[in-house]
Amino acid sequence: MPDSPPPAPEGVLDSLTNAVLVLDEDLRVRWINRSASRLLDAPLETVAGRPAAGWLSEEILRHASDALERRMTWAGAYGSARGSGGETLPVRVNVSPLEGGRGAVVSFARLASLEHRERRRLEQERLGAVARLAEGAAHVIRNPLTGISAGVEFLGRGLSADPDQKENFQAILREVDRLDRILGDLLAITHPADLSRAPADVSALVFDLTARFRAAYPDPVLRAECADNIARPWLDSEQIRRAVWELLKNAAEASAPGGNVGLRAGLFESDETLFQLGGRVLRLDVSDSGPGLPAGFERALFEPFRSTRSGSKGLGLYIARDAVVRHGGELRVANRPDGGALASIYLPWETRNDERD
Questions:
Q1: pLDDT in tens, 202-214
Q2: Is the CA virtual torsion 99, 102, 107, 113 positive or negative?
Q3: pLDDT in tens, 38-67
Q4: The overall pTM is greater than 0.90
Q5: Is 183:142 a contact under the CB 8 Å cutoff?
Q6: Can you state the percent helix, strand and coil of the chain, rounding each to 5?
Q7: CATH code at position 131
Q8: Domain closes at, from 42, 77, 111
Q9: In a shared domain, residues 146 and 274
């Protein structure tokens, strides 16, 4: 059999939602369909002829070897694939030999792993403890903070015009405000507000966030873009606005002086398994020109109280993802090939009948 695309029509394979890879006798990639290209973030021209070990786990490769050597077919096996940014994606796999024994076909779909479910269980247990702490903190800490703030303001009015003394009192008030915001963030992650969906003006949301960012961060430079084919999706504008704002803050703080931050909103059609949304998807991207994610930090990326920056509360990404997930969407963060990080919010397209375009 010549080393060319498989005899099955490419159009049929490209229409499948499962990722499909065709391997040769040496377990090198001969061909992939569009779902595999999106899932692995690897176009055909960059993977053709390369070892499949760059994308498929040892378990899958063993099944492929069995398909080649023993003419075995594996259905419903489990393994992992490596996606964009080196992320490990748990998958359910089918492997079968090509006719003539000159290769193997590997098809797979992403799934939630036992490890992932265990992490979520531990996360929920930890958040339960945080919720109890936050409820107590709201009374035990917030009431004294209010008294401290009022007392400092009262004492400040009786001071002389000494600028140093006034600045000291203002510094105390700023710290009180910061502690109060931390308490507010704790309550936000333990008692999230119910979704209040309504037709949302995405272009206005992007415009407002752009103005807010430029007022808060004169540096780095923000470049914003919103596609003009977006109607009015049915979502909670305030919660999505908060989610994007958390991503923008992270991007600004990650970028060096003179750097760039990007904000982009657009639509695309998706039949892929990568985000498990399907159909029409609203995508909101936030990019930065910072150092990117440290190696090995992907697993802890969305855990509360974990951050790569000193002084950060480590709550922003958790708050953002929570709002997105409760909309039925997904938030993904990865390093960009040309440097910096890219955070992408994917939301299933929903409208009311009178808002459909």
A1: 999 999 999 999 9
A2: positive
A3: 878 888 788 888 898 888 888 888 888 888
A4: no
A5: yes
A6: 45, 25, 35
A7: 1.10.287
A8: 111
A9: no
